[in-house]
Amino acid sequence: MSHYEIKIGKPWGQAEREAWLAKQSIKRSYEEEVLTPLSEFKDRFTATQYGALPYNEARYPLWGLVTKQWQDDKPSILVTGGVHGYETSGVQGALAFARDTAASYENDFNFIIAPCISPWGYETINRWNPNADDPNRSFNGEGETEESKQVIAFVRSLGVELLAHFDLHETTDTDNSEFRPAKAARDGEAYEDWQIPDGFYTVTDTARQELAFQQAIIASVAKVTHIAPADESGRLIGAPILSEGVIEYNKGSLGLCGGFTNSRYTTTTEVYPDSPKVDDQNCIDAQVAALRGGLDYLKQHP
Active site at which residues (predicted)? Predict the structure, then answer.
């Protein structure tokens, strides 16, 4: 049962948001788990501190990695992780790709990698930022949260046309036990559990479906971990299934990170870390496999 009191039609005011923030605490270290590993391979990329979160600028610098030997005649790929800070394999998957895998694709692509867009969320294991706003519903226009605003400005400052955007996420059991009940309480709306998909899936953009690209990602990930089957209603998280493990959202209208670029190919990966069939490393491997599958497809379909 949720410990949040839900008052239908009575959204939180500032006092309720501050009360929620007062209950949050640091549970892990952004410096140790993100910044230190990132520093170990900064020499292989052009590393840029593109900003810092105003909640604590010294603690939460924002870093992006850009291919060092950038070539304008190559297609460019954006990889984002940690839009939702609590989704661990999105962050660690982006770092693992930069460390171990990106080099094998640099003859074909330029890369821009923002591995942890929401470091406060990473440390406190939160979906929201300290203002109780969801960064992954704030990628409209120039950005509506500090997390979205700063990464949008960074990517746009590079002035490049993107071929593809991989946004690395997780769907967790805490979506039902913690974060969706909190959202219902915050917004004064009724709350109902949804069925958490048991396995990996992707979310494409309604405007840029590119189903064969999504299917290539699914095929690659299936070699590493299991793909989420349809629920009893034939859907995943309430959305119709387009193909095995693939659903779609209108990312632009929802303000999702995957919708802020004009890239032809965009995918949101969703790992399920609470399955008894997986462990932390398997979840990271699935994120890297998703990137490999998508990139291999793009190499074969220039």
Answer: 270 (proton donor/acceptor)
